[in-house]
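Weekly puzzle thread! Below is a chain. First person to post its structure in token form gets bragging rights.
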Amino acid sequence: MGYAFLYPMSTHIDFATQYRNMTDDQLLQIASEGGLVDEATVALNSEMASRKLTPQAMSSYKEDQLRYKKEQVERANKSAFFRLFGRRVISQGDTTHRVEIRTKWFAPRGIPIFPIASYRYSWEQKTIGKATSAHERLIDRVPLNWAQVLRTGAITYGLTIFVLTLFVVVAEWQNKLHGQ
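Winning reply:
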């Protein structure tokens, strides 16, 4: 005994009204995604024509979206301090596909001591309104990325030597100041 007769499902959707209430960017987004049913395609093409949204506007929108995604990837790679430690994009293609090489470190208390292995990861960041979520996926293990290891070692050990030197200089200065 089904409930289909009690609650009939409406299959008619007024695509024209829905598209009329959308912004130009929303229409271009839907058009760029494709995969619409015939009625939706007709209504979308009609609405885009009435707003004079041309195929050039569509390609411009796609280029803007790709540029925006690329800027977000670059900003994410530059923004975090800890990106200095063990993350690297190898090529422009990797940036486009959001693939990066990460090196796993033995790092007690968060200070990298020695490298363990390098891996390729892909990641995707989705933003809906003000909420952002990131999904990361391990692709495979790769040979240790020595340029990354040397850069991380130089930063870590250089900062350690600088801080220790600063402590020694301050201690000597205090001893000299207090006449000891």
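Puzzle host: Confirmed. Bonus trivia for everyone else. The helical segments are 15-20, 24-33, 38-50, 55-79, 92-97, 146-177.
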